[in-house]
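Task: encode each sequence below as C-alpha cells.

Item 1
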Amino acid sequence: MALGTFALFAASAFTPLPYLVPTLERRSAVLKPSAFHTRHVGVRAQEGSEPGFIEKLKVSFRLFQESRAAGYNFKQAVADGIAGEYDVSAVTSAVTKEAASAPVVLFTWESSPACKKALKYLEWANVKPHVVRLDNPWSEGNPKRAALGRLTGRSSVPSIWIGGKYVGGCDDGPSEEAPGLVKLAFDGSLPKKLEAAGVAI
C-alpha cells in the first residue's frame, strides 16, 4: 500500500522516469524524454529544480502517512499529502471565514462535473452563490481543500455552504446534517435553509 501510494504521488506530477532517475538518463539513450516532456518538464531539470521536486514528493508522502496514522481516511490523507506543509490554523480560519462570506458559498474546481452540476441547479433556483475556486491557483487551493476535508469530513468538491454551515456536496454528503444539495432539494428543506440564510427565493 505504501509503495503504491508513493507511486501515486509521483505519477500525479507527470514527471518522466529520466528526471526521477537522472543516472539512468545519462547511461541510456532509450530513456531520453519526448519533445513534450522536454518542453514541459525538462526546463525544471535544466534549472536545477529537480531536487526541490523530489523533496516535495518526500514531504507529501510523509504527510500522507501522518494523516493516515492520525485516523483520517485515504482520500483525506491524499488531500493532506498534496497540500504539502502549510499553516493549518491560518488556512482553516481563512476557509471558515470564506464559507460564511455569503449566504451560499461553493468551493469548486472549474473542470469538476459535480461542481458544474451544482452551479446549474442553483442557477435554475435563481440562487447566485459565491464561488471560491480551489484550482486557481492550486498552490492556495490544495491547502484549502485539505482544511475543508478536516472541517467537514469530506475533501471532495463541491463543498457547499449555506448560511455559514456545511450542507454537503452536490448529490450527497457525509451525514444527515449535510446530505448534499440534491437530497436537501428532494426532502424540501433546501428552501428553508436558503431563506434562513437570507436568500430570496
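Item 2
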Amino acid sequence: MAPILPFALAFCFLFAQHALALWPIPSSLSSGTSAIKLFVDFAIHLDIPHPPADLLSAISRTRTLLHSDTFERLVLGRASADAQAIKSAHVVTSLTVGLHPGSAARSIAEETTRSLGDKDESYELSVPDDASSATLVANTTLGLLRGLTTFEQLWYDSAAIPCRTLFARWTRCRGSRSVTPPRLTCVWLVLTSPRVKLSVLYWHIIDSQSFPLEVGAFPELSAKGAYSAEEVYTREDIQQIVQYANEASFH
C-alpha cells in the first residue's frame, strides 16, 4: 500500500465552534467528527462522456493544487495538537465528478456567459468518513467548478480537522475591481480569484498613469500613452484574457 501524503493533507473545516475555512460559506453544510486525509495517489475521476476542455483544465488545476499547496492551519502551533487524530484518520483515495442525469455538458465558458437568471452554480459535495471516494455532482459544469473550488478549500498541510460529510450549494456571485497590472499579473488575478468564487472582474484598463490598450482607430493612444511598447494590451491579448476569464468563471 502506498504511503499517505507526507504532509498529511486533511480537512481544514472548523465549523460551528471554530472559524470556517470555506469562502463563501455554502448555503447548506453538515459536518461530522472524524479526521480525514488524502491518499498519496489521490485521483479525480470524471464521469462525463466527452467533457469540455475547460472542465478538464479545471480538474487538472485542482489536482495540481492538492499535491503542491503548502497552506497550513492558521492557528497557534499550526495544528500540532491534531497529530494524534491524523494517525487514525480515514483516507480518501478519490473524488468522482459528474453531472445530474439529463444535464448538458456545456463548457464552463458557455455557462459563465449565460444570463444571471439562467446561470446555475449549485453543486453537492459529499466527503464521507466511511468510504474511500468523495463525490461531486452538479447541474452544470460551472457548478462543478464551484464544487472543485470548495473541495480545494477543505484541505491543508500538516494536520487534520474533525469533519465527516459536507453537502454544499452556492448560487450567489461576487464582483472584483482591478486596476490594470502587467499582463501576466492580470492572468494571475483571473486564475486565483475563482478560488474564493469571485465571478465578475471589473477591469479599469486606464486607471493607472498610462493608456495601455491598443485601439485600432486611434493607434497613437497606446503608442504615446503607454509606459512602453512592451506594456500594451493588443486586441489578441484582450481576446485571450476574456476567453481565459470565461473559462475560469468570470463574466
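Check on item 2: The first strand starts at residue 10 and ends at 11. DSSP finds seven helices and eight strands in the chain.
End of task.
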